[in-house]
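[09:14] KT: can someone run the structure on this one? pasting the chain below
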Amino acid sequence: MLNRIDLRAAASSAEAVDRALLPRAELDVEAALEKVRPICEDVHHRGTAALIDYAQRFEGVRLERTRVPAEALERALAELDPAVRSALEESIRRARLVHRAQRREDHTVRVVPGGTVTERWLPVQRVGLYVPGGQAVYPSSVVMNVVPAQEAGVESLAVSSPPQRTPGQEWSDGLPHPTILAACALLGVDEVHAAGGAQAIAMFAHGTEECRPVKLVTGPGNIYVAAAKRLLKGIIGIDAEAGPTEIAVLADDTADPALVAADLISQAEHDELAAAVLVTPSVALADAVDAELRTQVAAAKHHQRITEALTGRQSYTVLVADLEQGLAVVDEYAAEHLEVQTERAAEVAARVRNAGAVFVGPHAPVSLGDYCAGSNHVLPTGGCACHSSGLSVQSFLRGVHVVEYDRAALAEVAPQVVTLAEAEDLPAHGSAVKARFAWKVPDTK
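[09:31] RB: done, structure tokens below
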């Protein structure tokens, strides 16, 4: 069922990587920029009125305001299915355990007697957290955005998610999905806005009558959300330009083909551009996984969407000569999610260098990480895992150096500072040090 790329004849692992095309879903964010630019400018100038107009145009809902009333949040939590509430509470508990341990402490280094540098870690003061709508409902994304921000000590949180149209009605008064609202209430978030897409990112960046501007925006979204983040980066900080989800599975002939197939399908279920990649030295496993895919996809609820994703150019099996070559391939691909289902999986996984998150062995599927592993599921896509990290407490912290030197400590190093300032032809830099010791400033005329 999956396309195949055969790299077994490559002379070396490096050659395999050089020859591997490793195609991905094609996203033209630059083209989307031209579509979102007028939307973002309109929100900048007209504020809430523009958001109301776009909600009617894009979501088919009539809003009177974007901010969700407190009673709607309370009602959503009261009406939440008890089993869903219990599952969300466990997801939150585990996420807090992991993210609380990420909080950095201030650290002071005594460089010389009388001279110290302290690195302080300060939270971003106000953040906007985007939770997508679209083909699925993502209360888990509320958890994954809110928990690390709270554990970082962010003072002010605002969540935005698209308003939902009531089925069967031509127009409706839209709020975000009730499960999204319930998750926000469960986490103690009281500022939630009914806004989606590029217009939500513009709301966060520029502010409106109902939403103060934020300093940082995090959370996944579609191509228009990614384009708006790119456009407004600099006005706001961003976590990443998230692309379609992707899973890579590095497996040998010890892997269970039914489990591999199920895991590939789990990510293909997101949307038609989702990527599912199997890297294996075993032709027998590749064939068995294909057979399992045909059976399991046919029985899946979203089989049409899954089929499109699995048969797209972004999904394929890479046949490699051995696991050494396989590791080179997955490191080059730098998947958002990488599963390692091999003999001595922990040893193999320890050698991986590029992945958003690594799932080790047959009992750590990506689905676990999506909800209840304790890890974060907002991860770098499109190969960005080779230089970027997933969302964490660090995403919401800023390191600030605090420099404190007394007179003696400055005097000791003053000649070196002056020398370096003159070497860079910046004599006023040196003069700023000399002035503290009544040294004569050379006449530069």
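[09:33] KT: thanks! The longest helix spans residues 82-100.
[09:34] RB: yep, looked fine to me
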